[in-house]
Amino acid sequence: PRPIEELSIWDDAKAMLKKARAEGIQTVHDRLDRQTPHCKFCELGTTCRNCTMGPCRVSEKNPLGVCGADADVIVARNFGRFVAGGAAGHSDHGRDLIEVLEAIVEGETSDYKITEENKLRAIAGEVGIKTDGRPTMDVARDVMECFFADFGSRKKEVSFLSRVPKVRKDKWAGLKMIPRGVDREIAEMMHRTHMGCDNDAPNTMIHAARTALADGWGGSMIGTELSDVIFGVPTPKMSTANLGVIKADKVNLLVHGHNPVVSEMILAAARDPELLARAKELGATGINVAGLCCTGNELLMRQGIPMAGNHLMTELAIITGAVEAIVVDYQCIMPSLVQVSGCYHTKFIDTANKARFSGAIHFDFQPKTAMKQAREIVSIAVEAFAQRDAGRVDIPCEPVEIMTGFSNEAVTAALGGSLDPLVQAIAAGDIRGAVGIVGCNNPKIKQDSLNVKLAEELIKKDILVLVTGCVTTAAGKAGLLVPDAIEKAGPGLKKVCGALGIPPVLHYGSCVDNARILQLCAALANALNVDISDLPVGASSPEWYSEKAAAIGLYAVASGIYTHLGHPPNILGSETVTNLAVSGLEDLVGATFFIEGDMVKAADMFDERIKTKRKALGLSE
Ligand code: SF4
Ligand code: WCC
Ligand code: FE2
């Protein structure tokens, strides 16, 4: 096995990895060692399992699959399906929010409500729904119908394309890249990649981009916006992060997954006086709800709950021995968590029929019965406190402070009501540009080493950093999410953020909340009357692992945002596809991917790009 020192930059992770080894508990790192080396064909993307004439593996020696598909076709098809998987994940999450809105509109639930009428009306206006003088519920019903229709086949484009600069939409139209309907693009990708359909790699890639755009400007954006409507628009607030947020004297309940629909109810139920009283009866001082991954991010942004960790901390959180229950919805939940929970008194509870885990306690969570079910779940956690083995508890550190809650609405409010001061700071060169660092951990990479390093390098260069997803906890643990972090920033960024009392690295939410960053870019482009690809901005996912990250990367590029990946997707087996990704897309959509494992170099690449874009806008470098 690889030495623990090489697995993570964090002391809390290393302490728990030692404890895991001492207690004989297997982690993701052990399993990676057993899977290494990986299949070369799969790494290159040159395997195909799309029919039973195969499976086929193509190489120089043997360049065609049984049907005659070459490496270009096979790689493009595989990548297309990979992106479709990611787009499906985000978008199905978005759909779940529409269904909650439906339950509210139909009067089927009183556990959820419309918290932000103003935002609902603002969104309605943006997608062409009349709001003047109409009761909120009527507007909500139209918004619901409109968003359901965005998933179907009867529209020419998804509704939130109303936010996209016209030049960009024209570009997409010319390329047949306009996302028409979320489910339509995903299904069409499955169709195109069936044997005997789209056998032209660049054409498949164009549809992959369209599918990704249906995610970013469709499913994800709907997910973010309706979550705000139902649970509140995030506002800046302080919280804490790392395994130290788990408290030895409390009932600890971790929420993991993505959708706030379950976790918001769990948090509300955890404040129930009866359950609290029962926890005290059992010797706990309270009930502590802490977050993992994106459902954690959702609750952090809106409710300020503490963050226990990101992707590679999920197993390790349980290994503290102090977690009574881990409640999951879907996505990024390692099935191994059931086994790790089984090594302790921890109850593993799943809540979605589409994400069941063998060995878990299952709740079929529904809007109608949400609060009642949430209370039952919290009660299971509370009762588990009695079974905790104090001798096996080890909480390895004290939490660090973080600042969160930067929605576009909050940023605009902080700037005095419009984005103009931000535009001015960019024009003056105090903020030279902005880069969103997003995405995951990957056990092939020393945990958070790249996520943190890139953020540090960029802020030094007066480049504002926005973080979402699992990069949030990375940046937070590194001390970058507090106002004091301006000391690590360049002079311009220090001045602007210092004056506003905000960190140079802003927490922008969960992975679906990358839609907030898209919206911000579109708003900036519209304010300057340019295309998104003219802005001095970039995106990065240094330690990505998931299909969803590929969808995000591709919608960023297709939206005109220069995008860095710390390691390539499985496309290197096709020169055509690889060249398109890292250079050819520039001519088509005005941005490309770049792959770079060294974060100093990656920051320099962003710096160069930002200089070029600034110059073209007539600004100082
Ligand atoms: Fe092989 Fe073609 Fe079938 Fe793929 S679709 S498994 S390349 S025969
Ligand atoms: Ni989003 Fe990546 Fe975390 Fe999962 S939660 S691990 S896709 S960044
Ligand atoms: Fe996520």
Report on the structure:
This protein has 24 helices and 16 strands. The chain has helices spanning 11-23, 28-35, 40-44, 71-105, 117-126, 136-150, 166-175, 182-192, 201-231, 260-269, 273-281, 293-303, 314-319, 336-342, 370-384, 408-414, 420-428, 449-460, 471-477, 491-500, 514-528, 547-558, 575-589, 599-616; strands at 47-48, 56-57, 237-241, 251-256, 287-292, 307-309, 325-328, 347-350, 361-362, 400-404, 433-437, 463-468, 505-509, 537-541, 562-565, 593-595. A six-stranded parallel sheet has the order 6-5-4-7-8-9, sandwiched between helices. A hairpin with a 7-residue loop joins strand 1 and strand 2. It starts with 10 loop residues before the first helix and ends in a 5-residue tail after the last helix. Helix content is 48%, strand content 11%. The radius of gyration is 24 Å and the shape is globular. The mean pLDDT is 98. It has three domains: 71-231, Substrate Binding Domain Of Dnak, Chain:A, Domain 2, CATH 1.20.1270; 243-392, Rossmann fold (3-Layer(aba) Sandwich); 406-616, Rossmann fold, CATH 3.40.50.2030. With 621 residues, it is of the alpha/beta class. The structure holds iron/sulfur cluster, FE(3)-NI(1)-S(4) cluster and fe (ii) ion (FE2). The site of FE(3)-NI(1)-S(4) cluster has 13 residues, from helix 12 and helix 22. FE(3)-NI(1)-S(4) cluster is lined by residues 293-294, 310-311, 332, 439-440, 469-470, 511, 546, 548-549.
